[in-house]
Amino acid sequence: MEIEQRIALTILLMALVTYIPRALPLLVLAKFSLPKAVIAWLRYVPVAVLSALLFPALLMPDGKLELSLSNEFLVASLPTLLVAWRTKSLFWTVILGILFVAVLRYWWV
Amino acid sequence: MHLQSLSNTDPKAAVLRGIKDATPIVLGYLPIGFAFGVLASQVGLSLIEATAMSIFVFAGSAQLIAVGMIGAGAGMLAIVLTTFIVNLRHLLMSAALVPYLKGVSKKKLAWFGYEITDETFALHSTKFRKAVPPLMESFALNGTAHLGWVTGSFLGALAGQLITDVQTFGLDFALPAMFIALVLMQMQNKTFLVVGLFAGGAAVIMHLVGFGHWSTIGATVIAATSGVMLERWKSSKE
To answer: From the CA of B130, how many Å to the nearest CA of chain A?
Structure first.
């Protein structure tokens, strides 16, 4: 049970860069407001960053492009997408997604 | 204090309402937090380190990504900057809540901001549109969600010391699965779909070309900027 210095510093800096965008608008925007162009840009950041993380995770799970049926992440993403679309629930999407991959690993490859 | 606290003045009832409203979030956070804890311990984070990250950072996707990057041997700067860009989306959420929290003290706002996540924001913004509840209710909601996240992480980190092969359970798919749900919820119109596909494609190409952990930031900036340009071009055509 120990805390490595490097990890502690990483956690601290992660906390800082996470906290600033969360708190800053609440603390300063009562007086100022963001420029329109910035707001327009920020609207697209969530979908962009999530997709930029998701696609490589599905298409190249081991670091190289794997467009085949033996890529269980890619195969599982289809029923997972269906669950997300039908249930609109983070809980069920994650639980069933994990289950799909577990099942594929036992019976697919 | 202001108008909102004149109605629903019973603080105990307000706290209970907040806790109750947070239940669906907690149900989502427990398995994802658990997956985070397991994966964190797989890459060598101790029980304290994994739990501390969930207490201080409180950002599911960023934490899972950070753990993956630590496992892949990424440098601290890349991890911190990726965390920043991944969590930059909260800037907009925080800004969107400003009109509902006028007159609240700076100290309380500073605390409130600490616990803005995709999920708490979604719930607050839905509730605030109908009526702004007493502040205690919102704080109770945030605190319950945060506690759920920390609890899930703690249990996961504990279990991670027992589970030797995460892959067998499919737990490493927790993050992609979560992103599938979150990306889908972002699709407000066709432009968002185009931006998403563009960002995803750009990120894959940048990984292949060798940008490594910087691909996420690069693809995000390019795609979000193209989204704004596409939006302007569309409105100029009308």
So the answer is: 20
Distances (CA, A) of B1 to A11, A25, B135, B234: 36, 21, 10, 45
* Same-domain status, B109 and B144: yes
Report the domain count for chain B. Answer: 2
Nearest-by-CA chain A residue for B97: A26
CB contact under 8 A, A52 and B223: yes
Q: Answer whether residue A53 is part of any domain.
A: yes
Total tally of structural domains belonging to chain A: 1
Query: Which secondary-structure segment (H or E) carries B229?
Result: helix B215-237
pTM to 2 decimal places: 0.79
Contact B224 A56 (CB under 8 A): no
**Among candidates B30, B50, B24, which has minimal Cα distance to B152?**
B30
Query: Angle CA(A90)–CA(B217)–CA(B31) in degrees, nearest 5?
Result: 20
Q: What is the pLDDT of residues B99-119, one digit of tens each?
A: 888 889 999 999 999 999 988
> Tens digit of pLDDT for each residue in B8-47?
568 899 999 999 889 888 888 898 999 999 999 999 999 9
Nearest residue, CB atoms, B180 vs list A1, A23, A77: A77
Asked whether residue B3 carries a pLDDT value surpassing 80, the answer given is no
**Do B49 and A8 count as a contact with CB atoms less than 8 A apart?**
yes
Highest mean pLDDT among B50-59, B156-165, B171-180: B50-59
Residue B95's pLDDT is what? 86
Q: ipTM of this complex > 0.90?
A: no
Same domain, residue pair B146 and B100: yes
